[in-house]
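Input/output pair, single chain:
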Amino acid sequence: MDGTQRSSAVLDSLPYYDNDLEQYPILKEKVEQELAREPKPPQGLHPLVPPPYDLFKNNPMLAAELARVEAHQPLPPLDTVRYQLPAPTTSPGTDEEWQAALRNAHAQLEHQRIRHTNLALLQSYGANAWRIHNYRLEEAAKQAEKALEELKEKTVELNRQRKNTQTSYGAQLTALEIKWTELLSSILQIEMANVALDAEVSRIHKREAELENM
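Output:
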């Protein structure tokens, strides 16, 4: 059997019916010894499992952040240099250095203006936006809980059906096993009776020969 046929084979048992290992501990010990001699199963995923999905393939920044989180690395420190207003390093400073410092000051002023605008918008509309966001989260949580309960109910129902089916099949197997045992016992009794009859026939033939000789 090749690897493809082996992977497509479906093996099942009747765990709700087969309790020989619990009834006979020596059988369980033998099974464990036999399993210990078997080669270890492959550590990879089953061939039917789809390959892992590549997240953020088109977004390198999010992919790098996901890799950082998976590696349990801390966040990089905040860059506070861009929030500062450094003066020229030389005294009194060249025109280019003062122009660079002036451009930095304009950029900082624009950044603070945008922050002030964002804070004003947040103060005006942030509360309602937060309530709507919380409402959506609550609805998503309710839907997830409902789906979870439905899945649990389906799981319980499936296990109940499996138990009923296996119990029914187990009763049939038990009846067939008893019938097989009875038939086997009947066959052995018939064979023993045949052996006894053969011996009796041989004895009669021997006695008949003795009488003829006399």
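The helical segments are 3-8, 20-23, 25-37, 60-70, 95-213. The longest helix spans residues 95-213.
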